[in-house]
DNA sequence: TTTCAACCTG
DNA sequence: CAGGTTGAAA
């Protein structure tokens, strides 16, 4: 299928410029001059349909334009260039059989010594007309009459000819503008047609309802589609009343099929474009702070372009989103949600030689402790669920190799966690598939590539179990992610991008699809979160440079950086809370053994389990010894501070923080790669 | 004044 | 986990 942009690019020369660069007299031109008199004959739509921003495309187009000779000047002449030419030549040759600009330009020599005084008047008048472009013709004529009275007869004749020429030119311009608008309208129509086509395709591929609709007949289906689109656009207005509501309102109306005419007048609310169009200003256009009439100025043109681009993108996104959401709603076999969570074993060993403590810690947590340690400490236990009988892990089944691309079929093995290789760790069931599924930003290309080829989406995190193929978790679910949040500006996506969609991020949102790994990504994904947590084993206080080094696949901006920093801040918070908690516990229990290493942090201890659970949930990474050392040191520091009563000082933790922050160790090189690092030995 | 990290809260 | 607040350091 030809992309819309391709189609539109086929007739660049037919695209009439909007006079984007015509600036009023006296104003500083914002656009470059075109020395050869060749006007920038910009297609307006084509750049809009590129993924790059319109503003970028303008620049690129300017370059390309230099290779095109441009259309004949006499009827394609842009008003702005018209003015340019006049500026260049100062005055025109009038009354010498030179009637069109095309005749004027080649070999035109400036008449420097034209002494006739009326020439001044002509120019003054023209300038006036430019300045008061919206003034009525009659008024202008009256002005001309007044001027004419003062002119000698011969001059008056020439003046008349000049006016005729002016009239012709004006007509030409008007026609050009009309053509141009027709083009626009046609293109918009075409785009909308494509949207409908797209919607039908999606229905055809996925919709079970499609069969029903086929029975109802094509006409009915068409009607439904139109209603669907109408709803989508009305959604748009509801969802986003601020942005471009004017246009969306109109699109909605048009999509109902009311007053549809092929010349596309429905595209614009009041039909302004069909009439001639001296756009009278004042009304905000497109809700995008573009004032009607302003769009023929450079800034207005860009605004208009951006508004169009935005609207088109939104419309496409909404159609896809809506259709897919509808499909998800009607899906007969939604993924099962694990409803019955039962508390699992509550015995935790913080020290092998201290067997009576665990039950106490778990069952009767002292009130003080509860106050000091709110939800954080308890949560892991509450969330545990026993393995359902039928889903017992099979340690004999091979674990998926993360270094390989996902197999086309990965049903059972992918369900099996790589965790629990550590004999000291309790066995937990795999997470149920997150539902609703993560809402991801998606592109049409992804959608179609996926729908047509039924291949798994590309992911940048193939390295561990939680990042395995969707279908492994929810085989009955259609291979389509729910679409949503296509509207917020890209810059805002970073924050949400995948994390929130994951429904608690680390807690199970891991089974998430990602955008392509090759290029850097705007936001942070659950995969990045996982990686950050693993990095915490090495560095508690990473600098932003460190972060940039170890997240090469992330496009860093202020928002992303601060999010990453916030993550580590949260990690630290959790870490210190646990340290304090266990230190207090040890202190409470007297712990005479504290003197000779009873406060040791072994891999079999409860504290270790909690930390591992938090930073290495899937347990597919070997917790480095160094981290245990650091944790142990922190634990001891907390313990000694508590025992010595230093914790009465409100700032008592600061000294501990100071110690810990010096204990960062270098992050392994394996973290420099995109995706999640993995321990080789864990895969064996 | 700005930046950063801890702290608090949801 | 994220947003907001606060206090200290740069």
TrEMBL record:
Q: Name one Pfam family in it.
A: HPD
Return the Pro residues bias intervals. 397-406
Transcription regulation keyword on record: yes
A GO molecular-function annotation: RNA polymerase II cis-regulatory region sequence-specific DNA binding
Listed GO CC annotations = cytoplasm; nucleus
Task: Give the matching InterPro entries.
Answer: Homeo_prospero_dom (IPR023082), Homeo_prospero_dom_sf (IPR037131), Homeodomain-like_sf (IPR009057), Prospero_homeodomain (IPR039350)
User: Could you tell me which Gene3D superfamilies the record lists for this protein?
Assistant: Homeo-prospero domain
> Predominant location of this chain?
nucleus
Q: Where does the source fall among the domains of life?
A: Eukaryota
Region described as Disordered: spans on this chain: 1-38, 107-181, 235-280, 335-406, 479-506
Basic and acidic residues bias locations: 121-162, 247-264, 352-367
SUPFAM superfamilies per the UniProt record, alphabetical? Homeodomain-like
Q: Does the keyword Membrane apply?
A: no
List keywords of the entry alphabetically. DNA-binding, Homeobox, Nucleus, Transcription, Transcription regulation
**Prospero domain: which residues?**
521-681
Q: Where in the cell is it found?
A: Nucleus
Q: What GO terms in the biological process aspect are recorded for it?
A: anatomical structure formation involved in morphogenesis; central nervous system development; embryonic morphogenesis; hepatocyte differentiation; lens fiber cell morphogenesis; lymph vessel development; pancreas development; retina morphogenesis in camera-type eye
What name appears for this protein in its UniProt entry?
Answer: Prospero homeobox 3
Q: Which organism is it from?
A: Chanos chanos (Milkfish)
């Amino acid at each position: 299928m030809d992309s819309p942009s391709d189609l539109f690019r086929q007739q660049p020369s037919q695209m009439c410029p909007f006079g984007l660069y015509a600036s009023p007299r006296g104003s500083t031109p914002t656009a470059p001059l075109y020395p050869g008199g060749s006007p920038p004959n910009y297609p307006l739509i084509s750049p809009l349909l590129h993924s790059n921003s319109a503003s970028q495309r303008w620049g690129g187009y300017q370059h390309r334009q230099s290779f095109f000779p441009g259309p004949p000047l006499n009827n394609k002449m842009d008003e702005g260039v018209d003015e340019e030419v006049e500026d260049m030549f100062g005055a025109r040759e009038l009354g010498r059989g030179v009637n069109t600009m095309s005749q004027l330009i080649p070999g035109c020599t400036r008449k420097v010594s034209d002494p006739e005084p009326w020439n001044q008047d002509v120019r003054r008048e023209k300038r006036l007309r430019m300045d008061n472009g919206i003034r009525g013709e009659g008024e202008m004529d009256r002005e001309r009459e007044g001027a004419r009275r003062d002119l000698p007869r011969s001059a008056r004749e020439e003046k008349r000819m000049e006016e005729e020429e002016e009239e012709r030119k004006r007509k030409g311009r008007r026609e050009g503008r009309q053509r141009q608008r027709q083009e626009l309208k046609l293109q918009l129509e075409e785009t909308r047609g494509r949207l409908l086509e797209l919607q039908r395709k999606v229905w055809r591929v996925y919709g079970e309802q499609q069969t029903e609709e086929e029975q109802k007949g094509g006409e009915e289906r068409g009607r439904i589609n139109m209603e669907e689109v109408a709803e989508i656009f009305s959604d748009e207005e509801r969802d986003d009343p601020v942005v471009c509501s004017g246009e969306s309102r109109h699109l909605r109306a048009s999509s109902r099929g009311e007053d549809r005419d092929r010349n596309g007048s429905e595209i614009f609310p009041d039909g302004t474009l069909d009439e001639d169009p001296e756009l009278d200003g004042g009304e905000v256009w497109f809700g995008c702070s573009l004032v009607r009439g302003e769009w023929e100025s450079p800034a207005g043109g860009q605004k208009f372009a951006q508004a169009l681009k935005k609207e088109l993108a939104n419309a496409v996104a909404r159609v896809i989103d809506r259709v897919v959401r509808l499909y998800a709603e009607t899906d007969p076999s939604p993924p099962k949600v694990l409803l019955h969570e039962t508390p699992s074993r509550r015995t935790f060993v913080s020290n092998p030689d201290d067997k009576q403590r665990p039950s106490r810690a778990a069952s009767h947590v002292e009130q003080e402790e509860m106050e000091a340690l709110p939800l954080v400490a308890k949560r892991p236990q509450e969330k545990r669920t026993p393995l359902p009988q039928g889903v017992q892990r099979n340690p004999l089944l091979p674990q998926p190799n993360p270094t390989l691309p996902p197999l086309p079929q990965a049903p059972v093995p992918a369900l099996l966690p790589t965790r629990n290789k550590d004999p000291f760790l309790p066995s937990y069931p795999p997470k149920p598939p997150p539902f609703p599924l993560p809402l991801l930003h998606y592109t049409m290309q992804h959608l179609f590539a996926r729908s047509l080829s039924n291949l798994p989406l590309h992911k940048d995190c193939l390295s561990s179990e939680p990042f395995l193929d969707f279908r492994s978790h929810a085989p009955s679910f259609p291979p389509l992610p729910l679409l949503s949040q296509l509207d917020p500006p890209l810059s805002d996506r970073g924050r949400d991008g995948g994390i929130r969609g994951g429904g608690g991020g680390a807690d199970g949102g891991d089974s998430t699809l990602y955008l392509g790994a090759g290029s850097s990504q705007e936001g942070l994904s659950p995969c990045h979160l996982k990686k950050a947590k693993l990095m915490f084993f090495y560095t508690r206080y990473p600098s932003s440079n460190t972060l940039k080094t170890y997240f090469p696949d992330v496009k860093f901006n202020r928002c992303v950086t601060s999010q990453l920093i916030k993550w580590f801040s949260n990690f630290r918070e959790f870490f210190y809370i646990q340290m304090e908690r266990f230190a207090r516990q040890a202190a409470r229990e007297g712990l005479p053994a504290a003197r000779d290493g009873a406060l040791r942090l072994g891999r079999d201890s409860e504290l270790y389990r909690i930390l591992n659970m938090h930073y290495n949930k899937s347990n597919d990474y070997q917790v480095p010894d160094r981290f245990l050392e650091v944790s142990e040191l922190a634990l001891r520091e907390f313990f000694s501070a508590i025992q010595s009563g230093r914790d009465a000082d409100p700032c008592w933790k600061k000294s501990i923080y100071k110690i810990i922050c010096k204990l960062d160790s270098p992050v392994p090189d394996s973290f420099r790669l995109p995706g999640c690092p993995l321990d080789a030995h864990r895969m064996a």
